[in-house]
Amino acid sequence: MAGSLPAAVGFLAEIRPDGGPPLRPDFASLGGRTELAEDTGGQSLRAVLLHSGAPDGAHARDRGRTVVFAGELYNRDELARLLPAGLSPDSDAALVLALFGSYDVHAFRLLNGRFAALVAAGERVVLATDHAGSVPLYASVAAGRVLAATEAKALRAATGGQPLPARPVRRLTGVHQVPAGTVLDVRVSTAECVAHRTWAPPLARRIVSENEAVETVRQVLDRAVRVRTGPDTPLVVLSGGIDSSSVAALSAHRSAGRIETVSMGTEEADEFPQARVVATHLGSAHREITVSMADLLRQLPHAVWAAESLDPDIVEYLLPLTALYLRLEGSGRRILTGYGADIPLGGMHREDRLPQLDTAVCHDMATFDGLNEMTPVLSQISGHWSTHPYWDRDVLDVLVALEAGLKRRYGQDKWVLRAAMGDLLPHEVVIRPKLGVHEGSGVTAAFTRLLTDAGVPDQQVHRAKELVVQELFDHVVVAGRHPDEVKTGEVVEQVAERLASGAT
Ligand code: IOT
Ligand code: MG
Ligand code: MG
Description:
The longest helix has 19 residues, at 210-228. This protein has helices spanning 76-80, 92-103, 210-228, 242-254, 272-282, 293-298, 300-307, 312-326, 342-345, 354-367, 377-380, 393-401, 404-407, 415-420, 427-430, 437-440, 443-453, 461-478, 488-500, and strands spanning 8-16, 32-40, 43-51, 59-62, 65-73, 113-121, 124-129, 138-142, 145-149, 167-168, 176-177, 182-187, 192-197, 235-237, 260-266, 285-291, 334-336, 385-387. By secondary structure, the protein is α+β, with helices and mostly antiparallel strands. Helix 17 (443-453) packs across helix 18 (461-478). Strand 15, helix 5 (272-282) and strand 16 (285-291) form a beta-alpha-beta unit. The mean pLDDT is 96. The chain has a seven-stranded antiparallel beta sheet, with no helix packed on it. The structure holds arginine-N-methylcarbonyl phosphoric acid 5'-adenosine ester and magnesium ion (MG) (2 copies). Arginine-N-methylcarbonyl phosphoric acid 5'-adenosine ester binds at residues 237-239, 241, 243-244, 263-265, 271, 317, 321, 324, 337-343, 348, 364, 368, 371, 373, 436-437, 440-441.
């Protein structure tokens, strides 16, 4: 189990007293499909598992309980110590099942992972995400029936869903997204639902010496990279910034230099020279992929289809990555990214004052849920599994909690990370200022130009981007159209007309 791809990358599951018509969910994720049908605690459980060859590891049952699990755990060794001696589960699903037997819903407070899970336990169905909700999970719950899926579009046809203590999904009546770091405990017969938070971002800040901060960051990040690196050559999506270069350096350190790196750019902008410095230093097998801006913008519907996100800023970050993943040949790679480092470290925040920095960190840690920026579906639309070491639960707990003066120090942003990586990367990489993927690829500028060329006034550009993303969401998630059939240009024209006529 360790190191290879997760047993499943997604699922749709239905629990009801009796069987029903066949499940035919839409998923953007590629993968083999395996159907599961069993009686569990007097209910009928049916599921479609999306997998990359070993679906048996994605579900486990014992004593009238069944676990369905997509994704992977990163603290298996610690978790195994909690089990009775001699018990050694052969999959993450089996491990969760065993822990559930001892801890019930509180088992989910123990897990450090990237997963969505369902536990069918007699009259109860328990739905859970990891601390960051990094594998999105959606549910439609009515008295006598629970449906849950890792993509909202898989629940398009669900009807009769009751309100839940969770975020409703735009225009999918009765469909809700399970909050990050939350377990929903549902009584099937009545649709009653209780939410338990299993993780929350730290609010307090730790005062530690420079040395201790640097050593702790290096140690937790190194572990996060190690547990995410499989037996095969790791592939790191590399911009040459400090975040992804650190991940690449730690992977290379672990894999005796055998790593692959890949960078994307457009004819308008790239970070190729910066990434090349890192690749050369690490001796990685490195590739550069240039995507034309026209093709990139044409794939806006694909980014929304994969991420099911309604936030236009997030979609601008995710579009270049989506386009990159779509151009990786083969399938079933394990990809490591530097995504998310800027959130706990305040990297997007470009000024020197500490109160503003911590305000940004607090805001971003309070608002990430539901943006789906970490979703594995982004790479899974081309059959690859991606994972983000900076949003490892332990790394995040450390980074968020450091006092702001360790994040910005000596005039540098993300100081503690830069200091922690000083010995593994060239100095010019360690001190390179932050550049966002949306800037480095030219996406923000090009999307803006597309709108202003269509007649949208400058001050309405952000609103127009929001409307374009909503409209794309309505096509590819709500209406279930394939993104190849949705034309970015047409949607932009419609939005420009609506704004001009004052119809919004
Ligand atoms: P940025 O930090 O520039 O990029 C995120 C990751 O995408 C990088 O670490 C790298 O792994 C990959 N990447 C970026 N550019 C390239 C490239 N040209 N080729 C290959 N891989 C690349 C936005 C951002 O600045 O991205 N993401 C922020 C913050 C998100 C804000 N979210 C929020 N407030 N909820 C981040 O922290 O990643
Ligand atoms: Mg970054
Ligand atoms: Mg960057």
